[in-house]
Amino acid sequence: MTNARVEVVTTVQRRRRWSVAEKEQLVAATLEPGAGVSAVARAAGLHASQLYGWRRQLCSRPAVGPAFAAVRVAAEPAATALSGSREIDIAFAGGARMRITGVVDPAIVTAAVAALAGGRRR
Question: Where do the H-state alpha helices sit in 31-122?
């Protein structure tokens, strides 16, 4: 006969459920300057890989970007609106800039704005 070691488990450990607020709080603690993921995970009683997964999940949420306002191109501009200069400057969120001077065909402006807003730059 051999002397085998036997371990008897008397309690059942259930899976812990973390609320979104708890996850966000722990992830925010890891993003503070000087904080380490391993130390925060150890203090919370979970594995660092779980905390990295939450960071990836919560930090990859799509941010609400800038929205464009509705624009209507008028056939004849009002005399008071363009009193001195006939120039329009447009700065896009992606860093592109467009300056329109003088009289331009609305179809060309529409195509240029669509190209620059879509991120297609040369």
Answer: 37-44, 48-59, 106-117
CB 26 within 8 A of CB 53: no
Distances (CA, A) of 99 to 15, 72, 89: 59, 17, 4
Please tell me whether the overall predicted TM-score, pTM, comes out greater than 0.85 for this model. no
In whole angstroms, what is the distance from residue 57 CA to residue 61 CA? 7
Residue 90, strand partner residues: 98
What's residue 122's pLDDT? 46
Nearest to 68 by CA among 50, 91, 45, 52: 91
